[in-house]
Amino acid sequence: MKTRWVKTSLAASISALLSTSALAQSESNQVEADVEKITVHGLHRAYQGAFEYKEVPAAAQDIDLGLIGDAGAINLNDALDLSASVARQNNFGGLWNSFAIRGFSGDENLPSGFLVNGFNAGRGFGGPRDLAGIDHVEVLKGPKAALFGRGEPGGAVNLVTKRPQFLSGGEVKATYGSWEQVRLEADVQTVLGSKEDVGLRLVGFYEDAESFRDTVETEKVGFYPSLSWEFSEDTRMTYELEYTEQKIPFDRGVIAIDGKLGIQPIETFVGDPSGDRINTDVVGHQLEISHKLNDDWNLLLGAGLRDTTFEGNALETNFEGRQTVFIDPDQTLLSRFKRYRDFETDYLVLRGELAGEFETGSISHRIIIGGDYDKFENDQVILRYRPAYFSSDTDISDLDLSQYLVIDILNPDYSPVADVELSDNLDRLETQEAWGFYIQDQIDITDKLQVRFGGRVDKFEQQIDNRLNDPVTTTSQDDTRFSPQLGAVYLLDDSLSFYATYGEGFRQLTGSDYAGNPFEPNQSESVEVGVKADLTSMFDNLRGDVTLSAFNIEQSNILVFDSSEEASDGFFLTPAGKARSRGVELDINAEFKNGVSLWMSYAYIDAESTNHAEDANFVAAIEAGDPLINVPENQLS
Predict the structure, then answer these.
(1) Which H or E element spans position 354?
(2) Is 342 helix (H, G, I), strand (E, B) or coil?
(3) What is the distance between the alpha carbons of residues 304 and 519, in angstroms, rounded to a whole number?
(4) Alpha helices (runs of H) in 12-64, residue ranges in sequence order
(5) What gap in Å lies between CA 38 and CA 31, rounded to an integer?
(6) What's the CA gap between 111 and 45, in Å, rounded?
(7) Apex 237 CA angle, 232 and 240, nearest 5
(8) Is residue 249 part of a domain?
(9) In what order do the strands lie in the sheet with 134-141?
């Protein structure tokens, strides 16, 4: 059972309401809250269309603001813990969000992809996402490539932001919690213009906190203003700014000695507290124009621009198999190496979408037609110092321990380490550019049977400039892929529906092989069936829904270690891994009229490798049938 958020119950929170009865509305009155939510989010939602949940041939979860508050969640990882379909993965020492949906997580050396208002915001290195400025979190399960495009087959996470509600008011919160946590949040909005047709909302936060880990301290600040202008009842333009700055130490956690934990005290930090904080910055812009053409058709135009930076030094533990981890027989003197990282990403996306309804004879159609363009530039520079390797029979008294950046895990000394010389390790610019066109048509065959046909064509180009070489070498690839989706929904009555869906997808891989060539994309195939119950239609004193689903996903071209003779001169990867995930999920979201609510999420996931390969990080052997890493078989939230 997921309980990571429980520690936040130690915090004391003070909330001051500034004005308006609208903001003081009781959260327990969920019916009115849902009506308000529809108004706030505007006229149309990108990529999703206008469907009741029971009409969608896929499972989904909506983690709303009330649930986020009840759980004490302040960052994306905390919110996703509420979904049993999601499992935390390698978060790169606490420096980004990483998660698996239905067993698949993507490249563990990159942040997990997530969406903000349908725009891809996981690309880049902006640090872990705070929930300040977020209204609710959607976990959209199953194959989404037919609309969203390139991504993971298990599903997608979409964050819906707080936008102007065309009223005046706000709240300020101050929190003091465990380990000297100090957090301030503000959410203020007002109405502008003589016609009160402009809404302004200002959301921000500041947090400074220590940790149960000695010497570890983080500092974060974020500002998320938004402006909505209603040109008419049918047309609205919304602009949003995202600015976040974080200073976070690179902390991989405790060391397992001979496969056992508990030897190193959990409070011992093995990095460098004087210089191990990584600085991450995000500046993002989103612009959306929504126009209701008539009662049946809506047009949505959007543009997004997001720049991130990631810079700083880190002392890291050496890897078993590649380097000497402990230099003494007692295994207390830990050898470390030093890396300096300077990453910068620029991401541009443009999109347009037309959604509407029409009839052909007695058959009605709900259709979504759209296209998008995106360009992603990923500039990475890494400098590294790694101590010389020595064999097990070496007398350590002959070694200069200062050059091994040693720390005693039982009695750490955080004095400044030796001034070592860093050398080039990576200097690469990768550019990905893509054009996509998608269409989805959900057809009412009868009053009870609906069929969904969808597909997306993506044309993408990828170029890698390796600046370590002199002269600079450039490799590239381009390809066109089609991602189909087919689904069906049978409405037994107003309260019960059955569905099935099939989809295919792909995801571009970052990096290159031993010859400098870009990797072939991941490919996936997914099948899902399920049943949904609308509790509001079934009971007078109960509202909400229940979803029972089963799925099977297969993925190929997963990055693994390249053990071929051609790649023997270095540590290279190749897209040769295969995996399969299948499982059953039960999600319950219910609320009684007396205000008592129930949220339950359970998942049984059997995720495993289906071929022999070697791990992309530690060259450990992976056999067919081995479980995928960090994916629990049973999970309950």
Answers:
(1) strand 336-360
(2) strand
(3) 27
(4) 30-40
(5) 11
(6) 25
(7) 150
(8) yes
(9) 60-63, 134-141, 155-161, 115-116, 119-120
**Number of C-alpha atoms within 13 angstroms, CB side, residue 229?**
9
Task: Answer yes or no: is 1 within a domain.
Answer: no
Residue pLDDT, tens place only, 74-112: 999 999 999 999 999 999 999 999 999 999 987 777 888
Decide if 205 contacts 51 (C-beta within 8 A): no
Token couple for 44: 């149309």
**Region 627-635 average pLDDT:** 95
The Cα 160–Cα 460 span in angstroms is 27
State pLDDT tens for residues 536-572: 999 999 999 999 999 999 999 999 999 898 888 878 9
Residue 146 pLDDT class (50, 70, 90 cuts): low
Residue 158 lies in a domain: no
Q: How confident is the model at residue 37 (pLDDT cuts 50, 70, 90)?
A: very low
What is the Cα–Cα distance from 64 to 84, expressed in whole angstroms?
Answer: 16
Q: Tally the residues of the chain.
A: 637
Distance of CA 41 to CAs 26, 164, 203, 493, Å?
Answer: 20, 9, 16, 29
At residue 511, what is the residue type? Answer: G
- Under a CB-based contact definition with an 8 Å cutoff, are residues 414 and 467 in contact? no
Sign of CA dihedral 380, 386, 391, 392: negative
What pLDDT sits at residue 408?
94
Tokens representing 72? 């004490």
CA proximity to 138, closest of 117, 155, 120, 159: 159
Tokens at 517, concatenated: 């060539």
Distances (CA, A) of 39 to 118, 162, 268: 18, 12, 50
At position 179, the amino acid (one-letter code) is W
- Total structural domains within the chain: 1
- Do the Cβ atoms of 75 and 94 come closer than 8 Å? no
Residue showing tokens 């934990």: 261
Cα(192)–Cα(195) distance, integer angstroms: 8
Count other Cβ atoms within 10 Å, centred on residue 41: 17
Range of the domain at 332: 169-377+397-636
- 8 A C-beta contact, residue 528 and residue 549: yes
Q: What is the pLDDT of residue 29?
A: 41
Contacts by residues 23-29 (CB-CB < 8 Å, ≥ 24 positions apart): 23/167, 23/169, 23/170, 23/171, 27/65, 27/66, 27/69, 28/595
Q: Is residue 140 part of a domain?
A: no
Spatial neighbors of 433 by CB under 8 A, at least 6 apart, are 374, 375, 376, 460, 461, 462
Q: What is the CATH number of the domain that holds 246?
A: 2.40.170.20
Instruction: Answer whether residue 41 shows pLDDT above 70.
Output: no
CB-based contact 282:258 (threshold 8 Å): no
Cα separation, 300 vs 303, in Å, equals 10
CA–CA dist 192, 175 (Å, integer) = 31
Q: Where do we find the tokens 């097990």?
A: 392
Instruction: Give the pLDDT confidence score for residue 507 in this predicted structure.
Output: 87
Residue 581 to residue 572: CA distance in whole angstroms: 26
- Tell me if residue 536 falls in helix, strand or coil: helix
- Backbone dihedral angles phi then psi of residue 542, each to the nearest 5 degrees: -140, 140
